[in-house]
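Task card 7
Instruction: Convert sequence to structure tokens.
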Amino acid sequence: MGLRGLFTLLICLFCLGFWGCGGAREDRVGGFEGVECPDSAVFLPNEAAEMFRLGTQCGVNVAEVRSVVGRDTLVKRIYIREPFTRVAALSSSQVGFMARLGLANRIVAVGESRFVVDSAVRENAVEVGNGPALNLEKLVALEPQLVLSFATGGGQDDYERLNSLGIPLLLTSEWQEESPLGKAEWIKLFAMLFCPDSICSARAGD
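Output:
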């Protein structure tokens, strides 16, 4: 192997540490800064989903989500010590997963109400818009603990503006899964984020 080949191999080995090669950028929410945790996160295998994984680290639930945005791969790791109770769900699929788990009352904001099927969510959640039409002031006033959005790599993405708010942001990428089973399996992620108890686990497994 020549010097050039060795250099390429080293780069790829480095990227694998970020869950695969290809311009991956990792971000973490609620980690162990200032707290001793000698163990690495242990993740459980999924049946079909490839864009997220769930596990634990030092007794804390961990969710890791990968989103392909243009040429970049964004990796977000969230440590869940307590379930999120106030969430802005800016895509209709996110609303659908939460409604399926009986968590519609946790949604304080949606992107566009006209795409929301659940009547309770339409009546109680505030519409804040998507993309360039996203109203950041209205969103901040609702004091969400977590913002769920998505990104396609196009000019309509809003995740960079959302990042500037300082509110935990998670880009879901269920739509990037290759199989219907992989998409459906995302309900397990929502169960861990919002109600990691036996009731939600049972609903997620239905």
